[in-house]
């Protein structure tokens, strides 16, 4: 829903958690005006190239267990601005879905921009033939962010997209000295909304300086910081996705 609530963060950590469980994951970054996935994996200087079956995505590691596609890899300079109208965005998203040599993935996670705009409609339409599992909605605990997620719920209903659940991010800060939890942005808004809307609540991820530092430096938070405050919630979210899906058969 809202900008800056942690959609790319949850996308990144979910992909890392699923890889940790032995799954092959692709990430499609359809945030055309503010792509942040390449930077979060520290592969922002990579380019994509063409092969017979389409664009080859950028692989994060040697074993090719995480592959990425983002407009960030197609820009000449990282600071180039994408000022496009809907039809051009629609055409690129269609290409991202159909013309990328994703290979044999267990999961494709799509990271979206805020709102319910051209990118969202194009993505849902382009993915429809592949029968997407559903949407994960990310909010912070405050009413202003929860309100935006309410609009996303309506969008999902209108477009027939199943809601896998709601994640409440930046939900409290656990002091690294005394483990006291301070609810900086209040608490519980996401969980309440999930209850009210009758969709699963996937968990509360606290503000965690080790998480933001890992993302800044493109490090594998799931592997390197299993004792940090955000780890259990992130692992639990991934487990619920694994428990609730059978990707090979869908
Ligand atoms: N739980 C968390 N703990 C600490 N930092 C976090 C947490 N979640 C997100 N952040 C930080 O907040 C910032 C915004 O997160 P992110 O880019 O994931 O948001 P977004 O919703 O994808 O933004 P946009 O709407 O611009 O696409 C990032 O710098 C990220 O490192
Ligand atoms: S919560 Fe307590 S220990 Fe942690 S920073 Fe605040 S005063 Fe210090």
TrEMBL record:
Molecular-function annotations in GO: 4 iron, 4 sulfur cluster binding; ATP binding; ATP-dependent FeS chaperone activity; metal ion binding
Keywords: 4Fe-4S, ATP-binding, Cytoplasm, Iron, Iron-sulfur, Metal-binding, Nucleotide-binding
PROSITE patterns (UniProt xref): MRP
GO cellular component, one term: axoneme
Cofactor note: Binds 4 [4Fe-4S] clusters per heterotetramer. Contains two stable clusters in the N-termini of NUBP1 and two labile, bridging clusters between subunits of the NUBP1-NUBP2 heterotetramer.
Pfam families in alphabetical order: ParA
UniProt cofactor(s): [4Fe-4S] cluster
PANTHER family given in the database record: CYTOSOLIC FE-S CLUSTER ASSEMBLY FACTOR NUBP2 (PTHR23264:SF19), NUCLEOTIDE-BINDING PROTEIN NBP35 YEAST -RELATED (PTHR23264)
Family: Belongs to the Mrp/NBP35 ATP-binding proteins family. NUBP2/CFD1 subfamily.
Annotated function: Component of the cytosolic iron-sulfur (Fe/S) protein assembly (CIA) machinery. Required for maturation of extramitochondrial Fe-S proteins. The NUBP1-NUBP2 heterotetramer forms a Fe-S scaffold complex, mediating the de novo assembly of an Fe-S cluster and its transfer to target apoproteins. Negatively regulates cilium formation and structure.
Protein name: NUBP iron-sulfur cluster assembly factor 2, cytosolic
Organism name: Apteryx owenii
Encoding gene (name): NUBP2
């Amino acid at each position: 829903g809202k900008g800056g609530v942690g959609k790319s963060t949850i996308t990144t950590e979910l992909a890392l958690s699923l890889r940790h469980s032995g799954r092959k994951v692709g990430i499609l970054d359809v945030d055309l005006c503010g792509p942040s996935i390449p930077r979060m994996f520290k592969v922002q200087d990579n380019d994509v190239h063409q092969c017979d079956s389409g664009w080859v995505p950028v692989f994060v590691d040697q074993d090719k267990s995480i592959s990425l596609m983002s407009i960030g890899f197609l820009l000449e300079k990282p600071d180039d601005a994408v000022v496009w109208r809907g039809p051009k965005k629609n055409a690129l998203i269609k290409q991202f879905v159909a013309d990328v040599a994703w290979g044999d993935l267990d999961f494709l996670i799509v990271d979206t921009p805020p709102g319910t705009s051209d990118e969202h409609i194009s993505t849902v339409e382009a993915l429809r033939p592949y029968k997407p599992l559903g949407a994960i909605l990310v909010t912070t605990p405050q009413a202003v962010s929860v309100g935006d997620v309410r609009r996303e719920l309506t969008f999902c209903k209108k477009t027939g997209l199943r809601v896998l659940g709601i994640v409440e991010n930046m939900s409290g800060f656990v002091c690294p000295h005394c483990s006291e939890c301070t609810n900086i942005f209040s608490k519980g808004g996401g969980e309440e909304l999930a209850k009210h809307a009758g969709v699963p609540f996937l968990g509360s991820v606290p503000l965690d300086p080790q998480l933001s530092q890992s993302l800044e430096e493109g490090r594998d938070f799931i592997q390197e910081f299993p004792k940090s405050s955000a780890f259990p919630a992130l692992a639990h979210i991934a487990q619920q996705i694994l428990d609730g899906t059978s990707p090979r058969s869908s």
